[in-house]
UniProtKB/TrEMBL annotation:
Record's protein name: DNA2/NAM7 helicase-like C-terminal domain-containing protein
Residue ranges of every copy of the DNA2/NAM7 helicase-like C-terminal domain listed in the record: 1-153
Gene3D superfamilies hit by this protein: P-loop containing nucleotide triphosphate hydrolases
InterPro entries referenced in this protein's UniProt entry, alphabetically: DNA2/NAM7-like (IPR045055), DNA2/NAM7-like_C (IPR041679), P-loop_NTPase (IPR027417), SF1_C_Upf1 (IPR047187)
Cellular component GO terms, alphabetical: nuclear RNA-directed RNA polymerase complex
One GO term (biological process): regulatory ncRNA-mediated heterochromatin formation
PANTHER family reported in the protein's UniProt record: DNA2/NAM7 HELICASE FAMILY, NFX1-TYPE ZINC FINGER-CONTAINING PROTEIN 1
SUPFAM superfamilies given in the database record: P-loop containing nucleoside triphosphate hydrolases (SSF52540)
């Protein structure tokens, strides 16, 4: 079993401790990482009430508000001095990934003429084992009446 982790910020690994790894330790590498530029905290959760849309022909879900928010947040991090290759946008649905990529081209320019191709926009499952300085996670599903996020079986953290 994992005893010391070397990738996640302590704020994220503490959530893993609650559910999977009670005695998980953080390596010195993660404890000495610089703070995220332009934010008051290194890990931030954005709560909103904009519902997702089920796209029947794709059997997938998208959330237009989160597409716009994630890309605006990307633009903000670029203004803070981060480079395109330091940012990854992850999502939980394939149609959300498609919409993020399409909107990113509109916001930042065509992949062939821009550095936008360096931003990783992927489904969570396709990103396992990789690292990036800034991770923007679009869960797509909005807060429900029972205080759960979509299919996740944990209470909201805020």
């Amino acid at each position: 079993m994992l005893s010391t982790q070397h990738r996640m910020r302590p704020e994220i690994s503490s959530m893993m401790q609650q559910h999977f790894y009670e005695d998980l330790l953080n390596s010195e590498v993660v404890l000495s990482r610089p703070h995220v530029k332009g934010l008051q905290k290194d890990v931030v959760y954005i709560q909103h009430s904009n519902p997702e849309i089920y796209v029947e022909e794709d059997e997938s879900r998208k959330n237009v508000f989160e597409v716009n928010y994630a890309l605006s947040l990307t633009k903000y991090f670029l203004q803070q001095g981060y480079d395109f290759n330091q940012i990854a946008i992850l999502c939980t649905y394939s149609i959300q990934r498609y919409n993020l990529r399409r909107a990113a081209k509109k916001m930042f320019g065509d992949e062939e003429n821009s550095r936008i191709s360096k931003i990783r926009i992927e489904n969570v499952d396709n990103y396992q084992g990789e690292e990036c300085d800034i991770i923007i996670l679009s869960l797509v599903r909005s807060k429900s009446e029972n205080n759960k996020i979509g299919y996740l079986n944990v209470n909201l953290l805020f």
